Amino acid sequence: MGPRGRSALRGLLALGCMVGLVCAEVKDFISTAADFNTECKTCPHSVCTNQLYYSYDETFNVTCWTRGTRIMEDNIWLKSQAGCYVTQWDLYEYTGSWTSDLAYCGKASEDESITTEDATLQYKTECRICPDIDCDIMAYLPEDTDLSLTCWTDKGQIIIDDPYHFKTTNNCYVAEKGLYEKPDLTNLDNCGPIPFLEELWHWNENGTSDIDKRSPLPVPAEQGVQYLINVTVGEDYAPCRKCPQDNCKTEKKYVFDQEVWLQCLVENNGTWWSETTDFCYVKNSDFWQCPECDYYKNPLCEWFANPDDTEN
Ligand SMILES: *[C@@H]1O[C@H](CO)[C@@H](O)[C@H](O)[C@H]1NC(C)=O
Ligand SMILES: *[C@@H]1O[C@H](CO)[C@@H](O)[C@H](O)[C@H]1NC(C)=O
Ligand SMILES: *[C@@H]1O[C@H](CO)[C@@H](O)[C@H](O)[C@H]1NC(C)=O
Ligand SMILES: *[C@@H]1O[C@H](CO)[C@@H](O)[C@H](O)[C@H]1NC(C)=O
What we know:
mainly beta, five-stranded mixed beta sheet, 3 helices, 8% helix, binds 2-acetamido-2-deoxy-beta-D-glucopyranose, signal
């Protein structure tokens, strides 16, 4: 519709209002509240960094609408009074129409501006919806998975000795400890403040954005402490074998009290083994700790083997 058409329509609407018909008037702002923790982003796309976040039930004003990542059934995002963008999906149900009741933020607001840097996983690594141990696991990524990182945070779970995590273009976070090399932080934006997020509220059924597409998990993710864990050898020495069986070749020997980092578990005929960061297998009974016990909730190695996940 050209400008003339639009002004004719406005005239009609004004006429409608005068004779008492329903008419939409563009408001300066609409007061709303977050239905669950929601990120307020520097641009209206899932991978944009966070400027701030709103917690469940927090009220704020939105001033205009724009288009961004499709979340569930639509791609409408709203600009908050703070100047950042939230998806309408995360807000309390609005009985009016965002797009008729607010002004459009303008074409430029739809742009996606992110930083990226390539990286490759050295170890099997969980990719989480937020960078804490309680956050839901969105994908189990095997070693040598190529990733595109978009931002960094140093406010994540400390893995062995390292709190840095990176958000990938697949919209989940990996620990720096799982990467071959520490990324150059100067190439990447800081992710901003990250709220606790849950897959239950932040999954994206039928999301059309490639960035939000993920392969289904090979098994449902269980909550728990799942990451590289640090254990110590409780025997005179612990053979680390090429495969998780007593008759497999010994590739390495760890000594008494040596600190060993474990990636995941294998159960073989009732005996538990762990794959170490040297990519060989030690019998769990050789450690002081019990890596298969509930406290650690270490993942099974086979969960990472799904080749679909390597496209992350
Ligand atoms: C929304 O804007 C109005 C008008 O400026 C203001 O009175 C109100 O306090 C704002 N609401 C919030 C939650 O900031
Ligand atoms: C997703 O797609 C399925 C099948 O087309 C449909 O039944 C479902 O309502 C869609 N979900 C949303 C949130 O649009
Ligand atoms: C690994 O665990 C041992 C024993 O719990 C501890 O002494 C050591 O400091 C840990 N190392 C790191 C790097 O966290
Ligand atoms: C599994 O363990 C049982 C009992 O220890 C043993 O008889 C059997 O041979 C084992 N099977 C394999 C494949 O190692």
